[in-house]
Amino acid sequence: MPEKRLLLRNLHVPGIAGIETYERTGGYRSLRRAVLELGPDAVLQEVMTSNLRGRGGAGFPTGRKWSFLPKDGRPRYLVCNGDESEPGTCKDQEIIYRLPHLLLEGVLTSAYAIGAEQAFIYLRGEFKEGYRILEQAIAEARAGHYLGDDVLGSGRRLEVSLYLGAGAYICGEETALLESLEGRRGLPRLKPPFPATAGLYGMPTVVNNVETLAAVVPIVEMGGAAYAQLGTEGSAGTKIFSVSGHVRRPGNFEVELGKVTLGELLNDLAGGPPEGRKFKAVIPGGSSVPYLTPDKFDTPLDYESLKAAGTMLGSGGVIVLDDSVSIVDASLRLMEFYRHESCGKCTPCREGTMWLQQALERLHGGEGRRGDLLTIQGLCEHIDGQTFCPLGDAAIAALGSALRIFRDEFDQSIPGGRDRRVEEVAR
Ligand SMILES: Cc1cc2nc3c(=O)[nH]c(=O)nc-3n(C[C@H](O)[C@H](O)[C@H](O)COP(=O)(O)O)c2cc1C
Ligand code: SF4
Fold it and tell me: Of 41, 80, 257, 412, whose CA is between 20 and 30 Å from 323?
C-alpha cells in the first residue's frame, strides 16, 4: 500500500530545510504564481475548489473559513496554529522542523489570499528548536524577497512573526491561542463572536493548522480541481497520519484520504503489531476521539467513514494499543493528561476530570469501589456537551467508548465483581 506524498514528497532530500535546495526542488513556485499571476481572489477560489478541509481536528472547509472574513477595510490576520499538543500527533512537528520553507510558503500564500499583511506562527512551548529553524527560514525568505515590504516586486507587504507558547494543551484551541498571542493567560473565549469577525486584537482573523496551510502550496501548484480529484468527494486530498504505540514502524505516513484502510495503514505501512502480539484497540484521531477495535480496521481513512464507524479522524494521530495493555491503565493515563491540561474555567471539566482521575486511580490500584463505574459513566454524561470549550468532550471521548467496548475489563478491576450500569439504577 503506497503512500501518496504531496507535502512530504521532499522530506528526505538532503538540505531541504535550506532555501537553496527548497527552491531547486520547485519551492516558492506557488507563492510566485499566486502573487504574480493569480491574485488573491483566484487563490481563494483554488482553495475553495480543492475542497481542502482543515487538518487541525474539526475538518472545517478551509476556503469557506477564509470567505467568512468581512470586507470592511479593517486589518486582518492569519494565525498558523503550530501548537500541536494532541497526544500521539507529530505531523506538524515534522513539517516545522524538516520542511520549514514549505510551511512558510503556505503561510505567505494563504496570507496573501485572504488579504492579510501580517501572519503569526504560534508554536507549542516545547518547539524551541522549531522556532530557531523557522527564524532562519524567515531570514532566508526575506533575503529572497518572498516576504517583506515588496514581495517579489509586487508592491504587496507580507510579514510573519513567530510566537512560542508556554506548554499548555488548551492553547491549541483557537481562541485560547489568540488570548495567549495577545499576551494573556490562554483561556478560551466565548464564541460568538468567531475569530473571522473578532479575532486577534479584535480584528478579522483566520486560524489554520500547520498541515492545512502547507497543503495550500500543492493546491496552488497543481490547481484546486486536480487536488479535489485526490481522495473522496467529502474528504479531498492527502492527509498525514502519525502512527504511534504498538507497531513495528511508527512514524508519519501521508496517504490519499479514503483510499487506505486503518488496517492497511497499521499493517502495511506501520509494520503490524510487535512480534507475538495482537492489536487490541486504536484511537485514530489523537487521544480525543473514541476507540476502534480490530473488527473495524477495514474502515477507510476519511472523515465520513471514520464517523460512520463511531469515531473521528481528528488530528490524524493514530495511537495503537496491543493486547499487553490494560484499558483501565490506558484510560487513567489519558485522564491524567486531561485533568492536568483542563484550564479550570468551567466546573464540569475542572471538577469532572479530577473525579474521573480519582475513580480511575482506584480501579488501577485494585481498590475500585462498587459504584465507581456508575460514577465514571455518570460523569461522562454530565461532561458531554456541557463544557465551555471542546476540551471537556475531548477528555471523555476515548473513556466513554472504552467503557462501552471493554466493560468486562472495567468490571474485573472492582474487587467483588461487576458494577451496575446507569440504566439498571434508573429502572
Ligand atoms: C483543546 C483543543 C486543542 C486543540 N489543539 C489544536 C492544535 O494543537 N493544533 C491545531 O491546529 N488545532 C487545534 N485545535 C483546533 C483549533 O481550535 C482550530 O479548530 C484549528 O486550529 C483550525 O485549523 P484548521 O481549520 O486548519 O483545522 C484544538 C482544539 C481544542 C478544543
Ligand atoms: S472545558 Fe472548560 S475547564 Fe475545560 S479547558 Fe475548556 S474552558 Fe477550560
Answer: 257
Shortest-distance Cα residue to atom 25 of ligand 1: 54
User: 226 in ligand 1 pocket by Cβ < 6 Å?
Assistant: no
User: Would the CB of 342 count as within 6 Å of ligand 2?
Assistant: yes
List of residues 6+ apart from 143 with CB closer than 8 A = 19
Tell how far the Cα of 341 is from the centroid of ligand 2, in angstroms: 9
Q: Which atom of ligand 1 is nearest to the CA of 62?
A: 25
What integer pLDDT is reported at residue 422 of this predicted model? Answer: 55
pLDDT of residue 417: 63
Of the pLDDT bands very low, low, confident and very high (cuts 50, 70, 90), residue 424 is low
Q: Which of 68, 78, 81 to mutate to test the pocket of ligand 1 (most atoms within 8 A of CB)?
A: 81
pLDDT, residue 370, reads 80
Say if ligand 2 is within 6 A of residue 395 CB: no
Q: Whose CA is nearest to atom 2 of ligand 2?
A: 346
Q: Is 86 in the pocket of ligand 1 (CB under 6 A)?
A: yes
Give the model's pLDDT for residue 311: 97
pLDDT tens digit string along 274-310?
A: 999 999 999 999 999 999 999 999 999 999 999 999 9
Question: Domains in the chain, ordered, with CATH?
Answer: 19-229 (3.40.50.11540), 238-322 (3.10.20.600), 327-426 (1.20.1440.230)
CA triplet 93, 161, 340: central angle to 5 degrees?
Answer: 50
